[in-house]
Model the fold of this input.
Amino acid sequence: MDAFDYRDGDLFAEDVPLARIAARVGTPAYVYSAGAMRASYRELTGALDGLNVTVCYAMKANDNLAVVRTFAELGAGADVVSGGELAGALAAGVPAGKIVFAGVGKTREEMAQAIEAGIWQFNVESEPELVALSEVAGARGAEAVVALRVNPDVDAKTHAKITTGKKENKFGISIERAHEVYRLAASLPGIRPEAVAMHIGSQLTQIEPYEHAFARMADLAKALISDGLPIRRLDLGGGIGIAYQGETPPSPQSYAEVVRRTVGGLGLELICEPGRSLVGNAGVLLAAVIYVKDEGKRFVILDAAMNDLIRPALYDAWHDIVPVRAPVPGAATSQADVVGPICESGDVLGLGRDLPPLDAGDLIAIRSAGAYSAVMASNYNSRPLAPEVLVDGDRFAVVRPRQSVAEMIGEAQQPEWES
Ligand code: LLP
Done:
């Protein structure tokens, strides 16, 4: 489902013209479609139908509570990676019993918070973490349900900065050592090693890496079970890619088919942790042109910048950039670099884009900004965080207001020696 479509030349989010949102909320602003999020969730769960699987939405992709609630209402759990995300998931109505807690550097405070909340599962990434969790749980007379995150040494064939399942990456316990660490886990007080977890990377556009990694996990799970370990669940991670620029990522159906074939017959519970594939194409970053500068090369300078959407600067990522008012059919286009106002040359949103003539005040939509966009925003150059808007049919609501300059600069905090 593409929730962002032109009607009579105006770009809409579901049944709401983006120009109306810009007039009410201002720009820049992130605009999300609840309908598109529900559709992608239902497509995935529909494809996985018949498997004993819980979808734990990876909140890091978009942690807006209205977004998390949209999935919670459909029955999703959550994959969290910090005490902050855990608090957000609970506040959005995700039952503690459907929350998995991942990440290489959980602090003891975060572990205690998660034990008190009664989460479902800790995905543990190292022996020192396992020992710390045993101590934190033991001190509370609690038992932490644990998956070891195993690093299957499979190349996800994605961008180097978002590959996680290779030996040289910081994530997980190597598959060769996993069995021995499971035995250690089983011997520690306060630890119940019930599951095996993996996640090989993000924005996967091919199915084969999943196939290899799931097959390795299936072998490991069988070996652990025959060794008497109480394994009852596999956490398959996330990572299904989306089309930013014509990529053809695995469909929910082909993903589900591989899950069925590799791990579906083991009689184990399954978890998957999708983030981007549920929200990425359900959002846009709405911006306005401030100036067009043309001295032989055209620069379109927007009021959105790398602090609002860092993916092009950080990963050389492509996001489609389209005018909110469609050009008249047959209008000439020419190339432009679409940039923000931040004082560095890396502040680009798109280079060499074919765009119609544009003027100051024209509205622009930067597409595929539902995932890893608002969550990665910063106040660089003292730019307040942009608001987030959720559209549902013909309604829209601000689900996070624009940060004010006063909030951003905070109370004056002079050291006492400066009067
Ligand atoms: N599970 C674990 C353990 C993860 O580390 C991640 C993402 C996910 C699930 C969700 O993956 P997804 O389905 O969204 O691909 N900022 C980068 C992406 C970082 C992904 C980090 N881990 C980007 O903008 O491309």
